[in-house]
Amino acid sequence: MQRRDFFKLSLVASTLVLTSSASTLLTREPLDSQQISKIAFPEKKPLITYSDRPPILETPIEVFTKAITPNDEFFVRWHMPSIPTHKNIDLYTINVLGEVHNPLLISLKELKNDYEQVEITAVMQCGGNSRSAFVPTTSGIQWGNGAMGCAKWRGARLKDILKKAKLTKDARWIGLNGDDKASFNKTENFMRELELHEIDDNVIIAYEMNGEELPFLNGYPVRLIIPGSYSDSWVKMLNHITVMKEYKALYYMDTAYRIPDNECECETADNLYKKTKPITSMNIKSVIAHPTSNTKIKVNSHIIVKGIAFDSGHGIKEVLVSVDGGTSWQTTELGKELSLFAFREFNFAFRPKGKGDITLMVKAINNIGEEQPFAKDIAWNHGGYKYNGIDSVTISVI
Amino acid sequence: MRKFLLMILLFLTSTLLAKYTEEVKLPSITFKMAKDENFKVMQRNCQWCHSYGYILNQGKQSREFWNKSVVKMRKAYKAPISTRDEKIITDYLFKHYGNGELK
Questions:
Q1: Which residues pair with A155 in a beta bridge?
Q2: How far is residue A303's CA from residue A203's CA, in Å, rounded to a whole number?
Q3: What is the pLDDT of residues A86-128, one digit of tens each?
Q4: Residues of A with Cβ-Cβ distance to B80 under 8 angstroms
């Protein structure tokens, strides 16, 4: 995995040398912390561990041979150091207040019994997933490709809850707040806002993940699910929904999770683009989960390239593979479509005929014809968001 | 009979709900940091909110990068870092986790 990351970094770095001033560039070794930790967190297998407080864990690449990411391997990203345990779960409530005629205090039992229950399989991906590919380094966790996962979520529609709360005629925005806490009173808690038109039937408050209760670290007992969007607004341990007339200025809305508001969504470190926009909808992406970069195989032996592809909900039309470094492309076999918002498995069997290094590349194309750019064509942004370059793995045939 | 089944179902639901009866304890991981005379200043300012993993994960960076990071902690996250400590922490980070470049 390290060599793979290094390969990716050097690809991006070499492109930047051609296009921007050399003084801003650093060629970087892959990060040691991308090794799997020996220490396991509660309900998790040992994962790539960036921080224990707040907990930040990445899913190893090998897990993405399957469309469903197991709960105990699902990535974790909190912002605040203090995460309470809800020991008396019967007292847990979701408080719906603000511009409503009928304020609600919804218990978990009510959430499960008083609202229609819906299920949706959807990808959850951090906006900064694969950030370590960006050179120069941006601030933020230097993720590999594992700040994502796909699960079957079950819960109640946010729309139905808002309907029961009876919004006033002036209601336009809703604020979402989880129960994790900062160390200082003055530090803003992790709060996000959605405009009412962003809340469609797929947006649910989920209490179940792959048929089980949510793991503590994934937001037990409930979190918001917004299929197709980056997970910055998928608030964990959700306990406050505040309906508002107007947008409220917040750090996690106005400063974090934003990209340049221009066509390429790009800028340079020396010349940051002033106008920004939220990251919102996910772009098309795929990763190779098998084989990994340090793989050696014998000449003429069979190998199956496996991985997953996804987008924001248009659906994956095809996934192409190249065994000659991107010169020619062939179709792969796709797995079942679990939902338009889910990971789609692909696999491709081949038999290398000659010795030497082979670079495998994979490119996804969705139902509206969008496809992934080459890694070298990904332009930089200051937050290191939305990386979706064509994934490459180099293996040795011996 | 239906009532009986419902009661079993309710019982099962309630046992499922009573999942975390004790405080969930997260493991404490040691991220080894360089020790020098400024270490303690860095420690008492940074550790309130996050582990050292956050620092190490950034890799070797310029002095400006580290200074901006420290200032961000004060301005965006309201950490009470004095101007004096800001300089000491920046010195510490650049000395041990710097790439030799000022900008």
A1: A118, A206
A2: 40
A3: 999 999 999 999 999 999 999 999 999 999 999 999 999 999 9
A4: 184
What is the identity of the amino acid at A350? F
Closest CA to A57 of A82, A74, A76: A76
| Contact criterion met (CB < 8 Å) for A33 and B57 | yes
pLDDT at B9 over 80: no
Output the pLDDT for position A46.
97
* Cβ-proximal residues to A250 (8 Å cutoff; 6+ apart), any chain: A188, A191, A192, A193
The pLDDT mean for chain B works out to 87
- Which 3-state string (H, E, C) describes A283-342? CCEEEEEECCCCCEECCCCCEEEEEEEECCCCCEEEEEEECCCCCCCEECEECCCCCCCC
Does B102 contact chain A (CB < 8 Å)? no
A319: which strand partners?
Answer: A364
Highest CATH level, class, for B27-97: mainly alpha
Phi-psi region at A114: left, alpha or beta (left = phi > 0; alpha = psi -120 to 50): alpha
Beta strands A238-244 and A93-98 are parallel
Q: Which residues pair with A278 in a beta bridge?
A: A258
Residue ranges per domain, chain B? 27-97
> By the CB < 8 Å criterion, does B27 face chain A?
yes
Of the candidates A31, A188, A220, which has its C-beta nearest B57's C-beta? A31
Lowest mean pLDDT among A62-71, A134-143, A165-174, A274-283: A134-143
- pLDDT tens digits, residue range A321-343? 999 989 999 999 999 999 999 99
Most distant pair of Cα atoms in chain B: their distance: 77
Distance of alpha carbon A248 from alpha carbon A236, whole angstroms: 20
**Partner residues linked to A36 by β-bridges:** A48
- N-term to C-term CA, chain A: 20
Q: Residue B77: which of A53, A89, A187 has the nearest Cβ?
A: A187
Can you state the percent helix, strand and coil of chain A, rounding each to 5? Answer: 15, 35, 50
Q: Which among B23, B29, B65 is the nearest to A85, CB-wise?
A: B23
- Alpha carbons A291 and A304: distance in angstroms, whole number: 8
**Residue A274 tokens, joined:** 């002033």
Nearest CA-CA distance, residue B18 and chain A, Å: 7
Q: Which of A72-81, A246-255, A339-348, B67-76 has the lowest mean pLDDT?
A: A246-255
What ipTM describes this predicted complex? 0.83
Domain at A1-398, CATH homologous superfamily = Oxidoreductase, molybdopterin-binding domain (3.90.420.10)
